[in-house]
């Protein structure tokens, strides 16, 4: 039988001081705040509530799994932005020295290709360790008998190994052909720039306005390779590169344009039209601009159309499946040696594939900054030599005229 509940009635015998103390205690525990403070406290309480634990765990797991790939990608992209240098005689001697193998091996940890292989090599080596541990546990009867040993015949691998080798070779060869095409395109751009500048330097001008136009025209010609380089390489500082090549007003127009190389070509074309030139000379100079348009077309085609993605995906999937099943194939003959064998195989084959991916985009691999600087220095030297050569030839002409006899025959 349940006991009757006795309702608690407020005591009428409390003194006024006890009653005020009780009210003070209630206010301290449950303070009455204004409306806006109530909203603020509600927001704080809501924000302090723990979020969905499953989403937090998913985010943490994802961040942990992507930590190493993100680290490797950041190093690779940072190394991609480093400036390449043109080889001189000393670098060629070092390049073919007998100690190059030791030097290359000791600098392996600084290679962006090797650092980019850290994620896949770790994954496939870990898979090999798991499979080897599982097979060892089954062989030692640590697991129930219905767990099978993961092993298979090596005949399928012997049949598919040549296919994988040919796939990697063709992939790398296709990437190198793109690299070679980009190098040839830039060779034409550089030679065309030098030839164009040489013909502009040879123009004789009389009026001061034409002299200023000629000077500006040479500036535009020098700026074109720089603008094309910044147009092709991601993260280039075109404002800093063109700051010392163009006037402030011209630079503002170029920077406001969506296609900077075409904008500089328009500057060149308009400058040629404003110069007082004969029609034959103007036609010759105008035809030189086609070399710039051709260079832009080839470079943009290379940068916008990679090797067919199905080919790249096929190579990647083939490599992944190959190394996921490699420990199962090698377990019968190698046992725990499958771990170093998988490590070596993944490091070697994925390295070849990574080189193909890197040189597929040729322009970051070329020394374009050095080529642009070489063009600038050669044109500046040509301008300086023009004045010296003209002074030297004028001096020879005067001396030749003074050596003639009065009857018009030169003296011996």
Give the helices and strands, then pairings.
Blueprint lengths: L15 H14 L5 H14 L4 H13 L1 H14 L8 H7 L4 H7 L5 H5 L1 H22 L15 H47 L6 H25 L5 H5 L5 H9 L3 H15 L4 H26 L4 H26 L3 H23 L7 H35 L10
Helix pairs in contact: 8-15, 8-16, 9-10, 9-14, 9-15, 9-16, 9-17, 10-13, 10-17, 12-13, 13-14, 15-16
Report what the structure shows.
The chain is mostly helical and 412 residues long. The chain has a domain at 180-306 and 365-398. 75% of the residues lie in helices and 0% in strands. The protein has 17 helices and no strands. It has helices spanning 16-29, 35-48, 53-65, 67-80, 89-95, 100-106, 112-116, 118-139, 155-201, 208-232, 238-242, 248-256, 260-274, 279-304, 309-334, 338-360, 368-402. Helix 8 (118-139) runs antiparallel to helix 16 (338-360) and helix 10 packs antiparallel against helix 17 (368-402). The longest helix has 47 residues, at 155-201. It is elongated and about 110 Å long. The termini are far apart. Mean pLDDT is 81; it is low at 1-51.
Biggest beta-sheet profile: none
Q: What is the share of helical residues?
A: over 70%
E-strand count: 0
Rg on CA atoms, Å: 38 Å
Mean pLDDT: 81
- Helix-strand makeup class: mainly alpha
Distance between the termini: 151 Å
As a percent range, the share of strand residues is under 5%
**What would you call the shape?**
elongated
Low-pLDDT windows of residues: 1-51
In N-to-C order, the SSE pattern is HHHHHHHHHHHHHHHHH
Tally of separate helices:
17
Keywords: Ion transport, Membrane, Transmembrane, Transmembrane helix, Transport
Main location: membrane
InterPro entries: VCCN1/2, YneE/VCCN1/2-like
Membrane topology: Multi-pass membrane protein
């Amino acid at each position: 039988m349940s006991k009757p509940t006795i309702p608690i009635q407020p005591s009428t015998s409390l003194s006024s001081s006890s009653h005020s103390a009780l009210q003070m205690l209630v206010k301290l525990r449950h303070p009455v705040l204004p409306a806006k403070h109530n909203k603020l406290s509600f927001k704080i309480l809501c924000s302090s509530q723990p979020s969905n634990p499953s989403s937090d765990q998913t985010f943490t797991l994802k961040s942990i799994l992507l930590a190493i790939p993100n680290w490797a990608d950041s190093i690779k992209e940072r190394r991609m932005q480093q400036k390449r240098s043109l080889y001189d005689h000393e670098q060629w001697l070092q390049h073919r020295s007998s100690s190059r193998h030791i030097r290359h091996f000791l600098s392996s940890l600084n290679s962006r290709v090797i650092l980019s292989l850290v994620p896949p090599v770790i994954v496939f080596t870990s898979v090999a360790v798991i499979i080897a541990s599982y097979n060892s546990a089954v062989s030692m009867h640590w697991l129930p008998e219905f767990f099978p040993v993961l092993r298979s015949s090596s005949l399928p691998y012997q049949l598919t190994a040549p296919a994988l080798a040919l796939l990697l070779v063709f992939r790398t060869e296709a990437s190198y052909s793109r690299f070679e095409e980009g190098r040839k395109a830039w060779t034409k751009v550089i030679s065309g720039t030098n030839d164009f500048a040489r013909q502009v330097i040879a123009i004789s001008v009389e009026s001061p306005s034409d002299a200023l136009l000629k000077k500006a025209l040479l500036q535009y010609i020098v700026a074109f390779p720089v603008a094309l380089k910044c147009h092709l390489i991601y993260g280039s500082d075109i404002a800093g590169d063109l700051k010392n090549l163009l006037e402030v007003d011209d630079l503002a127009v170029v920077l406001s344009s969506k296609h900077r190389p075409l904008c500089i070509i328009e500057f060149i074309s308009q400058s040629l039209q404003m110069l007082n030139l004969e029609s034959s000379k103007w036609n010759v100079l105008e035809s030189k601009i086609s070399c710039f348009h051709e260079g832009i077309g080839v470079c943009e085609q290379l940068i916008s159309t990679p090797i067919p993605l199905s080919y790249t995906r096929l190579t990647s999937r083939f490599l992944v499946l190959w190394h996921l099943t490699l420990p199962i194939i090698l377990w019968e003959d190698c046992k725990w040696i499958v771990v170093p064998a998988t490590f070596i195989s993944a490091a070697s084959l994925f390295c070849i594939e990574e080189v193909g991916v890197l040189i597929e985009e040729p322009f970051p691999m070329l020394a374009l900054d050095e080529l642009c600087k070489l063009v600038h220095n050669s044109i500046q030297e040509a301008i300086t030599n023009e004045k010296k050569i003209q002074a030297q030839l004028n001096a020879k002409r005067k001396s030749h005229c003074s050596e003639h006899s009065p009857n018009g025959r030169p003296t011996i």
